[in-house]
Design brief:
Strands 4-3-2-1-10-11 form a six-stranded mixed beta sheet. A five-stranded mixed beta sheet has the order 5-6-7-9-8, covered by helices on one side. It has helices at about 5, 20-35, 60-75, 90-100, 130-140, 140-150, 150-170, 180-190; strands at about 10, 40-45, 80, 100, 105-110, 115-120, 195-200, 205-210, 215-220, 230-235, 240-245. The protein has one domain (about 5-245): Purple Acid Phosphatase, chain A, domain 2, CATH 3.60.21.10. The radius of gyration is 18 Å and the shape is globular. α2 runs parallel beside α3. The protein starts with a helix and ends with a strand. The chain is an alpha/beta fold.
């Protein structure tokens, strides 16, 4: 394998893997076995799973995903992950079983010489006040301990109810508040000293160019995977590209 292939970094997000979406699971496993084996690092920027009710959940296809992630990390590819709004309860046991490294909700990486801020993206959607209120509550240690202390079957039922509730709530929301707030983007990028941001969550793939304190800044929005298509942002020292999976 050439050095140019090894010196490559991949970014994905929002696969929303579940038992109801076998085609996405199949495509992701194929991606782990083939494309991801050839690179230096893979970053999963949240919502790998459609829901995550605890590291003790054996519901298919979670064990299959664990196995193939472990095979990938054993092969030498580093895998990093940021929790999303659907899988924020994913924790240390999952990381021990897979070799995946869990990162902070805002993390700056050195992407071939350029400081790059990565995040899931939900924290940037500050116009969605009800969601931000729930997020603040659900990320407390007390709330998470309370949820994870419940029997697995109860957590499964609650997660299913929450997905249904979330679906209908989204249909009633103004779509504009479900996108990022540009002032928040500017503030967070300035705080972290970055002119490049990569995130998912909004399901609005694009590359946004804008000015930040008189300098050119870029925001890369990753695409969600669907039953019929998926994509990955590929980066090396010379350029970047979007690759269909």
């Amino acid at each position: 394998m050439s050095n140019s292939l090894k010196q490559e970094t991949l970014f994905i997000s929002d696969l929303h893997i579940s038992i109801e979406k076998p085609e996405i699971t199949r495509r992701f496993i194929s991606f782990l076995q083939e494309r991801a084996q050839k690179v230096e690092a893979l970053y999963i920027l949240g919502d790998l799973f459609d829901s995550w009710i605890g590291d003790d959940d054996p519901t298919p296809p979670t064990n299959k995903i664990r196995k193939h992630l472990k095979q990938l990390t054993n092969s030498g590819t580093k895998v990093f992950m940021i929790n999303g709004n659907r899988d924020f309860l994913l924790g240390s046991q999952f990381c021990q079983e897979t070799g995946v490294i869990l990162l902070n909700e805002y993390t700056v990486i050195d992407l071939y010489g350029t400081p790059t801020l990565i995040t899931h993206g939900d924290l940037l959607c500050t116009d969605d006040l009800p969601y931000q209120s729930f997020r603040k509550k659900s990320h407390t240690t007390e709330w998470q301990h309370y949820v994870l202390s419940k029997p697995l079957i109860i957590r499964l039922l609650v997660a299913r109810w929450y997905r249904i509730r979330s679906y209908f709530h989204k249909r009633k929301k103004d779509q504009s508040i479900m996108d990022v707030n540009q002032e928040t983007v500017n503030k967070i990028m300035l705080e972290h000293g970055c002119l490049r941001l990569i995130h998912g969550h909004t399901h609005r793939p694009n590359i946004h160019d804008f000015q930040l304190n008189g300098k050119l800044a870029q925001r890369f929005v990753l695409a969600a995977w669907e039953n019929t298509s998926g994509s990955v942002l590929c980066w090396n020292k010379n350029n970047h590209k979007i690759e269909k999976i």
